[in-house]
Design a protein that fits this description.
The structure holds two protein chains of two kinds. Chain A is mostly helical. Chain A has seven helices and three strands. In chain B, helix 6 packs across helix 13. Classes of the chains: A mainly alpha, B alpha/beta.
């Protein structure tokens, strides 16, 4: 029986949550909902904090209010290749160290501005082509993927598409020469 | 017992059997229903009832777990069908998965299938351009394949018949290469597309760009209301099935109409094994059907058999219909069954930019785009390759939020307030090339490898040739030149090297012709050797032309159904 199947079986036995010791994550719970990933509850919480820094709450709800972290993990679990899943999870695992190295503090102790700076720095990383660069590559891939999926999960959410920018399945008749100056909508403050 | 058997046989006897409920089979059934012919319409897949069986049709983007993207597992398990542009989270239930019906790729071929009532008519691109005599006369003029036994005048009234009922929108463009039809008002070209069309007229005279004719209802008419269909709402979600019946499908149009006549019985989950040939009577008497669930074989009988199983499976059914009289497949005295198989060459594209009309964009939706009718080798041979190509064409203006905005409130606000388009218009064309049917391009049965129903699998030997390669280069050169003349910039050409099949325009193998020694079907779509068997789908095609072929199959089916009824009245 391979490890993944074993995990699944354990997850079933323990009612959806596998309580197993793991060399990767000390003795933390692994979330069974994302069965292709080994993601712990605290990692999901960290992902939530990152996504909420990418799209914070303001006048309108933010990424965390819309459960975007769950959407991100569903997409990574279901729609990424095995190699990219590994890159994503190792980037997630390396992110705490990345924060400490860059800012000298844990991520949740940073100010909003510091969080944004850190994430933006990670997104813009140009990893060196050496073993040291591998970790940076993972962090960069993780943050870019998280940004992309946060944006998608936020904009394609029921909240945005019903309350903020109502989506219609019927787009109306075609106008092939619409003046841009006449298609402008009133500004939405996030 | 004997009486029971007779009774049972009577219950399974009809005047006509139609095999396949896609675009062409649906039309045969509709015509038979209207003409009072008791008909059994067989479909190998499950039933899909209009509206009721379109589970995703009104789903909003956020209701899709993966927002339209298919899970990696589905993509990994379906390397073939996953290449199809219409295969997505909202439509995957209408496609045959790779493992459902394996086939043998002696040469690479992507076979895209829709096994359900309505077939691929639920999923098609709905482009309906008529053929002209430049197409029907092609093989005779250029010396390939065999001469078509029909001409435009034979099919023109049936194009009209089909267009009026299906609903075709288009403009009266007055082009001899692409005859006008019974059109509802055409859809608008946008301002850059109009500019391109105008430039082509000025620069070349004989090169055109028009609004592509499409099978969408652009204006309500009583004949559509009578079918329960309303106008197209520009949703562009056609692959989910349309709750308005805005585009033509068998499901929204011909099948419910046929069933309403009271003359047509629809039998889904019925995989046709073969046609029954009666040596004494010298004709076909019915079909053998495998129940898709129980795998049990049953027979159904009729005076007339229509094979409309989609090009490849229509070939397969005839190949599997062997008898002492026809050891190599029904009606295959000529030996050409499965050969001269062809398709459309969709490999190439050209794209560019246009920096004019910068103050304009588009809004709303439309179900079609532009179309460049064939201009190469039309009146005379101009190049070192045979035949020519049509092109799709469209122009669009990008816009949207600034994806590289800094994370935080800046990103949030840029997403909620998309910037107006500031880049130039983008323009693009894709190639639709005619291919030359050849004996060496063929499909055949592999009797060693059986499918889940115990039927032989199909093996494919179809590939591009030198003519196709030359045509790709010419298309890229000519369209690039046309783009330059229109003032487009940043022009680039592509060849995606897709393998045959992904065009989903497979044609031939049961070709029409004048001579029984070199063709399978006569001018009325009857097998030369078994005249009560008709084939009116893609299998019957003698050559491919450049037009999207479905309209022609529908017209063929309607015409042949009327012919069959006329023949039966002669007794």
């Amino acid at each position: 029986m391979n490890r993944r199947i074993a995990l699944k079986h354990l997850a079933l036995i323990s009612g959806g949550l596998a309580l197993i010791p793991s060399c990767d994550f000390s003795s933390e719970d692994i979330l069974a909902a994302y069965d292709n990933l080994k993601v712990t509850a605290s990692q999901k919480q960290l992902l939530g904090e990152i996504s909420d820094a990418i799209i914070p709450a303001g006048e309108l709800k933010g990424a965390l209010d819309l459960e975007v972290p769950d959407f991100i993990l569903v997409m990574v679990n279901d729609c990424l290749s095995v190699e990219n899943q590994a890159l994503f999870t190792s980037g997630l695992a390396a992110f705490s160290d990345f924060a400490k190295n860059q800012e000298g503090k844990k991520f949740d102790q940073l100010s909003t501005k510091e969080k944004e700076n850190l994430i933006q720095a990670g997104i813009d990383l140009q990893p060196a082509e050496n073993p040291e660069g591998e970790k940076d590559s993972a962090v960069s891939y993780f943050l870019n993927t998280t940004k992309r999926l946060t944006m998608q999960g936020y904009m394609a959410s029921e909240y945005i598409q019903t309350e903020i920018i109502p989506f219609s399945l019927i787009p109306g008749p075609y106008n092939g020469s619409a003046l841009i100056s006449e298609t402008q909508k009133s500004r939405i403050n996030g | 017992m004997a009486n029971l058997n007779i009774q049972n046989k009577q219950e399974r006897t009809y005047q006509a059997i139609v095999v396949g409920s896609g675009a062409s089979g649906g039309w045969a059934a509709k015509e038979f229903g209207d003409l009072g012919v008791k008909t059994l319409l067989l479909e190998r897949g499950r039933n899909v009832e209009h509206i009721k069986d379109y589970p995703t049709t009104n789903m909003l983007p956020y209701e899709f777990k993966h927002r339209g993207k298919l899970p990696q597992k589905v993509l990994d398990e379906n390397p073939i069908v996953a290449k199809c542009y219409a295969f997505g989270e909202d439509s995957e239930h209408f496609f045959v998965k790779d493992a459902d019906q394996p086939y043998v790729r002696e040469k690479p071929f992507d076979w895209i299938r829709g096994y359900q009532v309505g077939g691929k008519s639920l999923l098609w691109a709905r482009q309906v351009q008529r053929w002209s005599d430049y197409d029907f006369e092609g093989p005779a003029r250029d010396g390939f394949a065999v001469d078509w036994p029909i001409r435009y005048k034979d099919i023109a009234p049936w194009y009209s018949h089909v267009e009026k009922f299906a609903g075709v929108s288009g403009n009266l463009d007055g082009l001899d290469v692409l005859p006008d039809g019974e059109f509802l008002p055409g859809y608008d070209l946008n301002i850059v597309e109009k500019h391109f069309a105008q430039k082509m007229k000025e620069v070349y005279g004989d090169r055109h760009m028009i609004s592509a004719r499409c099978a969408h209802i652009h204006e309500p008419r009583p004949e559509f209301t009578a079918q329960g269909r309303a106008s197209c709402q520009n949703r562009n979600l056609c692959q989910r099935g349309c709750p308005f019946g805005g585009y033509f499908s068998s499901n929204s149009s011909t099948i419910p109409w046929a069933l309403k006549s009271g003359n047509v019985t629809l039998r889904p989950d019925s995989v046709v094994h073969s046609v029954i040939y009666d040596e004494e009577k010298g004709k076909a008497t019915g079909v053998r059907v495998i129940d898709a669930h129980t795998k049990e074989m049953e027979e159904f009988y009729a005076d007339v058999i229509f094979i409309n199983a989609a090009a490849i499976n229509s070939n397969a059914i005839l190949m599997n219909s062997t008898s002492a009289r026809f050891p190599n497949g029904l009606g295959n005295d000529s030996g050409v069954l499965g050969k001269y198989f062809a398709f459309h060459n969709y490999r190439a594209g050209v794209s560019g930019a246009y920096e004019g009309y910068m103050e304009y964009t588009t809004s709303g939706g439309r179900p079609t785009s532009g179309y460049i009718p064939r201009f190469r080798n039309v009146k005379k041979q101009e190049t070192d390759f045979l035949r020519g190509y049509a092109g799709g064409f469209s122009a669009y203006r990008g816009g949207g939020y600034v994806a590289d905005a800094r994370v935080g409130m800046e990103l949030k606000n840029s997403m909620l307030n998309p910037t107006p388009p500031d880049g130039p218009w983008r323009v693009g064309s894709h190639m639709m090339g005619e291919t030359i049917p050849k004996e060496s391009n063929y499909i055949a049965l592999d009797t060693e490898k059986l499918d889940p129903y115990g039927l032989p699998t199909l093996k494919f030997n179809v590939e591009y040739d030198d003519n196709d390669e030359k045509m790709i280069i010419d298309y890229q050169e000519q369209i690039s030149e046309m783009f330059e003349k229109a003032g487009f910039t940043d022009i680039s050409v592509r060849d995606d090297h897709r393998v045959p099949g992904l065009d989903i325009h497979e044609m031939g193998g049961v070709r029409m012709g004048r001579d029984p020694k070199t063709s399978m079907l006569n001018a009325n779509h009857q097998l030369h050797a078994v005249p009560n068997v008709y084939v009116t789908d893609g299998a019957c095609m003698t050559s491919t032309a450049t037009q999207n072929p479905t309209l022609t199959y529908m017209a063929f089916a309607a015409r042949a159904a009327h012919h069959a009824v006329k023949e039966s009245k002669k007794g």
